[in-house]
Design goal:
hpI Integrase, Chain A; single chain; mainly alpha; three-stranded antiparallel beta sheet; 56% helix; elongated
């Protein structure tokens, strides 16, 4: 293989990985895997069968000691992809036999908050963070997706005929439309107000609408609210906490499953890949979507529902009419005889 061909393939692979931010982990994995050897020289020797790849995989695993098994497996998958792109055959069975690869096991045990716990957490947030974390919970967003939302992504009236969010998936980059509950739509109307630029971030550091809140800062804000609510507890593994920002996404899924909403709709609203077959055949009607969303909205409304204003007025008028009729009849009754 010529150096030019190696560089071209390397560039193509890095560009393909870049949108998902896997380019830097790949470069780190290559550096550890090669163990001080020039990557181009290693690839050329490996194509000629002059390199013990198992030994280099062992170097990589040893260099990643201390990381979670899932993270180590991720780095191994990147190296396998890199070698395939470079035309190097990898005998995965031989690698598994010769290299002790940590098993991927659940390292943490988190959960979704209850409705009451979520209210307590929101009560201990600042006004901005209260809106942000409630939006994550009732729309099933990833934290990074919420932080990237712009004012223009909140659509109060559009083609769907109901308020909804335009969300760019943090995993695939695809756009999905997520309905808003009536409660959340009213909160966002008050939060956004009038005259805000559609290109401004929906949630931003004070006074800097063009700047995005850092993910680490948002994580700290949530965990501080959990602490103030008296809910900051370690999980059963002792390595993490029961509640953290991703638990809000689990709240969304748990609430909708309990309400009996179609699982395919839940996955679609959460931005999960349904698979080519499911996506091709799942074509719900507008009436079906409306009924499913009614169940979802009831499950995701956190506070007491506001009564229908028109019905409330009509009931008040009818009650006053009955009272006036009673008073009028009492006035027209003949006086009782005196004895």
């Amino acid at each position: 293989m010529r150096r030019e061909d190696f560089d071209r393939r390397m560039g193509l692979l890095l560009n393909k990985l870049k949108p998902r931010k896997h380019d830097k982990p790949l470069l780190k994995a290559i550096r550890i895997f090669c163990g001080g050897v020039d990557p181009y020289e290693l690839v050329c020797r490996a194509r000629r069968g002059e390199v013990d790849l198992a030994a280099h995989f062992a170097i990589l695993v040893n260099g990643l000691r201390g990381l979670a098994p899932k993270t180590i497996s991720f780095y191994l998958s990147l190296i396998r992809k890199w070698l395939r792109v470079m035309g190097v055959h990898v005998d995965n069975r031989a690698i598994r036999d010769l290299v002790e690869i940590p098993r991927v096991e659940p390292s943490k045990s988190d959960r979704a908050p209850t409705r009451e716990e979520l209210r307590r957490i929101l009560l201990n947030c600042s006004p901005r963070n209260r809106v942000m974390f409630q939006l994550i919970a009732v729309c099933g967003l990833r934290l990074s997706e919420a932080l990237r939302l712009k004012v223009g992504d909140v659509i109060m009236d559009g083609g769907l005929g109901a308020p909804h969010l335009r969300v760019k998936s943090a995993k695939t980059g695809r756009i999905r439309l997520v309905p808003l509950t009536g409660e959340m739509a009213e909160i966002l109307r008050d939060y956004i107000g009038r005259g805000r630029d559609p290109d401004e971030y929906l949630f931003h550091p004070g006074g800097r609408p063009r700047k995005q809140i850092h993910k680490d800062d948002a994580y700290k804000y949530f965990m501080e609210a959990v602490r103030k609510a008296g809910l900051l507890r370690k999980d059963s593994s002792g390595r993490g906490y029961e509640l953290h920002p991703h638990s809000l996404r689990k709240f969304f899924k748990t609430q909708l499953e309990s309400a009996g909403v179609n699982p395919l709709l839940i996955e679609r609203w959460m931005g999960h890949n349904l698979g080519s077959v499911a996506q091709a055949y799942f074509r719900p009607s507008d009436e079906y979507l409306r009924k499913e969303w009614q169940k979802a909205e009831e499950a995701l409304t956190l506070y007491l529902k506001r009564p229908n204003r028109r019905s409330e007025i009509e009931e008040t008028i009818e009650s006053m009419r009955r009272k006036l009729d009673l008073m009028w009849r009492m006035l027209r009754l003949p006086p009782e005889p005196e004895f």
